[in-house]
Task: structure prediction
Amino acid sequence: MVILIVEDEPKVGNALREGLEAEGYEIVLALTGEEGFFHASSRSFDLIILDVMLPGRDGIEVLNTLRKQGTQTPVLLLTAKDAIEDRVLGLDTGADDYLVKPFAFAELSARIRALLRRNKAEPEGVLAISGLEVDSVRRTVSREGHRIDLTAREFDLLEYLVRNHGRVVSREMLARDLWKETARATPLDNVIDVHVARLRRKLDDPFSAKLLHTVRGVGFTLNEEQS
Amino acid sequence: MSGLLGRNLRTRLTVLYASLLAGALLLYAVCVSAFFLHNLREQLDSSLDRDLEAVEAILYVNPDGTVQLSSHEGEADEDELDRGYLLEVWSDDGRPLYRSEQLNDQGLGPVPKVAPGQVREPAKSLRLPSGMRVRTMSRIHHLPDSKTVVVRLAISEEPLWEEFWEMVAVLAVGLPIVVILVVITGYLVAARALKPVDSMAKRAAEITADHLHERLTIDNPDDELGQLGIAFNATLARLESSFDQLRRFTADASHELRTPLTAIRSVGEVSLRKPGDENYYRDIIGSMLEETNRLTLLVDSLLTVSRADAGRVQPNLALVDLLELANESAAMVEVLAEEKGQTLRVEGGSSVIVRADRTILRQALVNLIDNAMKYSPINGSILVQVANDQESAVIEVHDSGPGIPPEHRSRIFERFYRVDKARTRAEGGTGLGLSIAQWAVATHSGTIEVQGEPGRGSIFVVRLPRLISTTTPVHTH
Result:
C-alpha cells in the first residue's frame, strides 16, 4: 500500500511518515502543493493525505485539479480550521474524509484503514482473541469459557476494541464511533474513562493475564502482551 | 445642498431660519400692504359718497338742460370742487350735461351704467389722460320734475397712493433690518446651543481604548443633546465592559493555555536530565500527551466559543421533546454520578416541546448536569426537572453542592470564571462549560440563571420560548 502525504510542516510530515511506515505502508512525502500534485499525477497511490493549508497551491485546489483529471484515489483532508465551510468545501470537491488538526495518530491510522477497506463489510459473528470470545450477533462475551455479563455500552466498547485489537484506540474515536458525538467535551472523556474502568473490572480482574490496557495520554488497547 | 447652505450645522441652521423668516415677513408685508390699500380706498369711497350727497344738494338743472351749481351761501360750492373734486352730470339718455372745467372736456370714463334696482354705480379707479389717478362714483339724482340725471363725482387718488408707497417704503427698509438682526442673533444663539456638541466631540475624541472609563459631561439630561450624550455614555459603558471582558478573557485564556504548556515543558526538561529506562520515558511521554490532550480540549472549546461569538453557528432547528433530551443527556453522564454514589433523577411532563437544535441544546444540558455532579458531594443528589410555565419551557438543574454566593452569580457564566480558583482545574474542567451552556441557551432565545441559597445547593434555571401549538405534539424518537 502506497500513501502520498502532502504536508508543509516537516515535523508533522515526518512524524506521519514514521508512524505509518511502522504500520507497514510505503510513504511518499511532499512538502508543497505543487510537489504533491506532481507526485499524484505521475504515479498511482492507494491513498492521498492532503493538508488543506499549504503555501502556494492549497489542498482544496490540488484536490480539485486531481478530481478534474479523473483521479479516483481516496483523499483524506487534514484541516486546521474547525470550520463547517471548509468541511463542506472539502467534501464537495471530492474528499473522502477529513480530520481536524490536532488529531491523534491512532485516529488517523483508523481513518486510513477505513478508507482502504471501503465497501468491505465488517466480519460478523464470533470474534475470538486470546481466549476471549465476542459474539457480535448474540451480543455475548465469554473469556476462557466463563460468561461475562456486560451492559450494552460495555459490549459496544469491547467489540470496538476487539475489532481494533493490537492497535491503540483514542477517546476521540470512541466518542465519535460509539457515542456518535462530534464535539468533544470534558464530561464525555470522563464518561469514557468510567466505562473503560468498569469493562476492565469485569474483563480482567478475575484473570491473571490482562487484556485491556491504558496507553497513557493516547487511549486504550486490547492486547495480550503488556504494552 | 450643503455647499449652498454652508458646511457647518450652525451656518446651515442660521441660513435656513433666516430664509424662512424672510419668506414669512415678505408674505406678511404683501398682505398688510394689500389690506392697507383696501382700507384707504374704503375711506376714500365713504367720503366720496358723503360729498356726492353734498353736491346733489346744490345741484340745479334748468329746464333747458343746463346744469347750475348753486347754494344759499353763493360760491362755496366752487371751493369744494377746488379741493380736487371733479364733477360730471349725465342725462338719463346718456348725454353729458355738465363737466367741471378742470376736465377740459375730457370725460370721466364711459357713460355711467347703473344696474337696475340700484341707485349708484360702484366706485371705480381710473387714470385720466393727464396721468392723474382718480376714484369715481356715480349716483342717480331725481329732479323735481320726476326726471333723473346721473351725477358722477371723482377725486384724485394721488394722496392715497402716496400714503401707500410711504408705508411700503417703511416695510422695505424695516423688514431687511429685522432679518439681519435675526440672522446675527440666530448665529450667536446657534453657537451657544451647539457649544455642548463641540465640547462633546472634543471629549469623545479624547476617549481611547485606554480611557474607556471616562464619560461625557452632560449639562442638561432632558434636551436632545443630553439624550445624545446619555446614549453615547451608555455605548461607552457597554464598550468598556466588553473590553474588560475581552481583556480578562485574553489573560485567562493565556493562563489556561500556559498551564499545560508549562507542565509539558517541565516534565520534558526534567526527564531529559536524568537517565531512565524505557518505561520511565514511556511514562514521561504519556504524561506530556495527557497535557496535549488537555490543550486540545481547551482549544476545541475556545473554538466553539469564538465561532459562537462570530455568529457562525447555524442552529439546525427541529421539534425537541425536552424530557426526552434531558433523559438522554442524563443517561450519557449517569456513570459519573454512579462513581460518586450520587443519585441523578430526571422528572417532568412529556409535552414540553421546544423548537431547537438538538445537539447544541444537549451540549448545554450535559454541561449543566456535569457541573451539578462536580459540585455535589459524594452520595449527593442531582435533580433535573422539565416543565412548562406560562410563557416558557423550563429546565431546572438542582444540585446538592455548596451553592453559589450571590456576588458570583452574575459572573459564573463568564469564560474561565471560577468561584473557587483551585478546585475546578483539579477536576479537569476547561472553565468554559457554563459559558458554552449559556451561549447554547441564548442561541435559542432563552435565558439561564442561578438560584438557590448558599449552603442549600444551586438551581440552574433555563427558560426557552415555548412552542405554541394546538396540534398534536410531534414526538421524535
User: Anything to note?
Assistant: The interface with chain B takes residues 82-84, 102, 171, 179, 182-191, 194-195, 198, 215-218 of chain A (CB under 8 Å). Chain A has two domains: 2-116, 126-222.
